[in-house]
C-alpha cells in the first residue's frame, strides 16, 4: 500500500513529481524487485551526482515496479487531489496528475487498486468519470455533515481559547463553521 496526501499548505506535496517520488520510494522499501528497479534508475543518473530523473523516467520506473508486482495486490491511495493546483501552467499540475492516473488505469493491471479522494471539482469528476469502476460521494451526506458538526463542537468546547466565550457566541462559531465547511 502506498499513500500520498496533496497538501495545499506544502508546495512539496502538490505536484506529480512529488507523488511519483513518494510512490516509488514507498514501493521500493517494501519489495526487493522494486528496490532493484529504483537502483537501476539511480545508476542511470550517475548515482545522484548528475541530473535528476525526468518525470517520464519516474513514470516509467513506477510502471516497471507495478509490473514487477503483478502477482501481488498493490493499493495506491491519493488523498485530497483537489489540493493539487489547477491554475498555473499548461498543463496544470492537477492535469498532469490526472494524466498519470489515466496511464495507471491503462496498465489494466488486475492487481492495481487506486483510491482517489477529492472534493467534487468539475475537472476531477470529468477526468475520473471515465476511469472509475466505483465512485462514492460523501458530499452533502447527512452522516458527513453530522461528523463535521460533532468535530467542530468538540473542538470549540475543549479549546481553552473558547472557555470565556458566551454560549451563544460558541453556538454561532459552531453553526457558521459547520454550515460553511463544504464537506471539509
Structural class, judged by helices and strands? mainly alpha
- Run of helices and strands: EHHHEHEHHH
| Fraction in beta strands | 5-15%
- Rg for CA atoms: 21 Å
Mean pLDDT: 89
Major beta sheet summary? 3 strands, parallel
Distance linking N and C termini: 25 Å
- In the residues, how many domains can be counted? 2
Helical amount: 40-55%
Q: How many H/I helical runs?
A: 7
Low-confidence parts, pLDDT < 50 over ≥5 residues? none
State the total count of DSSP E strands: 3
Shape, per Cα inertia axes: elongated
Plain-language structure description:
This protein has 184 residues and is mostly helical. The protein has two domains: 128 residues, no CATH class; 38 residues. The chain contains seven helices and three strands. Strands 1-2-3 form a three-stranded parallel beta sheet, covered by helices on one side. Helix 4 links the parallel strand 2 and strand 3. The longest helix is centred in the last third of the chain and has 17 residues. The protein is elongated. The two termini are 25 Å apart. The mean pLDDT is 89.
Summarize the entry for a quick read:
Helices cover 51% and strands 8% of the residues. The chain has 184 residues and is mainly α.
Topology record:
Layout: E1 2-5, H1 16-30, H2 32-44, H3 55-68, E2 74-79, H4 93-106, E3 112-116, H5 122-129, H6 142-158, H7 167-179
Amino acid at each position: 500500500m502506498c499513500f500520498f496526501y496533496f497538501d495545499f499548505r506544502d508546495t512539496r506535496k502538490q505536484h506529480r513529481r512529488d507523488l511519483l517520488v513518494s510512490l516509488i520510494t514507498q514501493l521500493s522499501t517494501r519489495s526487493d524487485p522494486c528496490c532493484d528497479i529504483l537502483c537501476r534508475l539511480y545508476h542511470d543518473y550517475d548515482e545522484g551526482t548528475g541530473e535528476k530523473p525526468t518525470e517520464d523516467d519516474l513514470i516509467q520506473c513506477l510502471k516497471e515496479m507495478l509490473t514487477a508486482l503483478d502477482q501481488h495486490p498493490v493499493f495506491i491511495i491519493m488523498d485530497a487531489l483537489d489540493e493539487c493546483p489547477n491554475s498555473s501552467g499548461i498543463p496544470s499540475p492537477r492535469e498532469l496528475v490526472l494524466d498519470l492516473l489515466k496511464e495507471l488505469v491503462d496498465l489494466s493491471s488486475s492487481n492495481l487498486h487506486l483510491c482517489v479522494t477529492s472534493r467534487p471539482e468539475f475537472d476531477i469528476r470529468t477526468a475520473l468519470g471515465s476511469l472509475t469502476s466505483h465512485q462514492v460521494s460523501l458530499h452533502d451526506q447527512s452522516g458527513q455533515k453530522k461528523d463535521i458538526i460533532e468535530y467542530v463542537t468538540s473542538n470549540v468546547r475543549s479549546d481553552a481559547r473558547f472557555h470565556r466565550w458566551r454560549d451563544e457566541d460558541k453556538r454561532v462559531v459552531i453553526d457558521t463553521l459547520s454550515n460553511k465547511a463544504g464537506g471539509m
